Amino acid sequence: MDKISSMRVFAKVVELGSFSSAANDLRMSASVVTRHVAELEKHLGTRLLNRSTRSLSLTERGQLYLERSLRILADIDETESLVAASDKKLSGVLKICVSANFGLRVLPELLERFRAKYPEVLVDVILTDEPVDLIARGRDLAVTIAGNVTQDTVVRALIPTKIILCATPAYLEKFSTPKTPADLAKHRAIVLTAAQQVRYYWELADHNGALQRVDLNPAIFCNTAAFAYQCVLANLGITMFTSYLAQNDIDSGRLVRVLPDYELPDRELVIAYPDRRFLTFKARAFMDFLFEEMRSEEGRVPRHAA
User: Fold this and answer.
1) Closest CA to 227 of 236, 216, 215, 218
2) Domains contained in the chain, CATH given
């Protein structure tokens, strides 16, 4: 039994949704395709596919086997590519998830330089501030805020970020500037719902690190920091930003930092990936590139990045 060939056949059957379509695509007979899948199931001692006269569906173990198989096959393909060519000849699709603000405001410039170095790598990007399950989404890695990935991932800190509160001068002129954390209860809060549990409070720390919990009066719920940013610029309320995002607008006067003597707990911008054993060469190259770019003085990410 050629397990690698059978993996490829199995993956193609799932991709196309039928044995006959996979046979046509792979230029095999339907019986050969069926035998590959049957031999896999016999070898593993479990059913991978639920079959009916009209459709196919993955079993729970079939889904797990598919996810791991795709990573193994991608690693094999890239290993062969590396042997056949230089490191700069990496090719294929790199699938990443990134936080929305990072993706909208920083990533394009980084991708320009990355693709100049690896022009044959196609980058497939999902922007999300929702908790990221890399395996379920079939992503190679994520660039997001710490704590925003599932526990079954490897996480490496990229850069530190501070979380601060901001509003526009026009909003504060109309509704007054909070003097103490308790004053926030009287203001319109723009609340992110991307966390696993929506919170109707913020916890602010003073210079001594003492936390003070403040109940909120939510005006808008949204699931991305990018939309919250636009809402604040539209004078709709107060929200939390990373200092990277807000600093340029604070310097220009478009935004005002609210309660500058207080901060929300710091959170790091991180790179996360499912498992070192399944980190593809493309993903490793991109991760190394990000560390080099974002930690060097010359390639320092703009202050509004995270």
Assistant:
1) 236
2) 3-83 (1.10.10.10), 86-306 (3.40.190.290)
Rounded CA-CA distance 129/148 in Å is 8
d(CA 223, CA 175) in angstroms, rounded, equals 25
Q: Which tokens hold the place of 266?
A: 């710091």
- Cβ-contact 285, 113 below 8 angstroms: no
Separation CA 286–CA 267 (nearest Å): 22
Write out pLDDT tens, residues 64-118. 999 988 888 887 876 666 565 545 578 889 999 998 888 988 899 999 999 999 9
DSSP string, 145-193: ETT-B-SSSEEEEEEEEEEEEEE-HHHHHHH---SSGGGGGGS-EEEE-
Which of 272, 275, 18, 299 has the alpha carbon at shortest distance from 147?
A: 272
Q: Which two three-digit tokens encode residue 116?
A: 């100049």
> Which tokens is 281 given?
């060469």
Question: Could you count the other beta carbons within 10 Å of the beta carbon of residue 147?
Answer: 13
- Tell me how far apart the alpha carbons of residues 224 and 304 are, in angstroms, rounded to a whole number: 16
Please classify residue 179 by burial: count the beta carbons closer than 10 Å to its beta carbon, then call 0-12 exposed, 13-18 middle and 19+ buried: exposed
Q: Which residues of 181-192 are buried (b: 16+ CB within 10 A; e: fewer)?
A: beebeebbbbbb
How much is the pTM?
0.60
Determine the Cα–Cα distance for residues 261 and 239; give it in Å rounded to an integer. Answer: 16
* Nearest one of 296, 289, 282, 299 to 90, comparing CA atoms: 282
Cα distances (angstroms) measured from residue 264 to each of 163, 166, 178, 221: 5, 12, 16, 19
Rounded to an integer, what distance in angstroms lies between the CA atom of residue 54 and that of residue 17? 10
Per-residue pLDDT, 300: 43
Question: Dihedral (C-alpha) 149, 153, 159, 161: value to the nearest 10 degrees?
Answer: 30
pLDDT in tens, 28-59: 998 999 999 999 899 999 999 988 777 888 99
